[in-house]
Amino acid sequence: MKSFVCSLCHKGILGGGLYLDSQSLTYKTNKLTVDKKYRNLVLPMQEIKEISWKWIVFPIATVNMKHGEQYKFIIFNKPRFEKWFQEYCPNR
To answer: What are the angstrom distances between the C-alpha of 50 and each of 12, 17, 72?
Structure first.
């Protein structure tokens, strides 16, 4: 499992950690004011359609799910994240 410093872009910027392994991409935060769904957000790899990027001061990854949901993350080490995502999911 690889970990990354990130922020979830959802009703503001929510700092936390992003954890990547061959099964899922998981966002975790300990902020109690955040909706429970987003405190431990698990995105299964088989349900991720694609990840697209744009820059607005920091690199922002948009994770597009197969069922239409979108999640945006500021990931502070984009090259490292892309390297490991490609290793865990070589077909994307």
So the answer is: 23, 20, 12
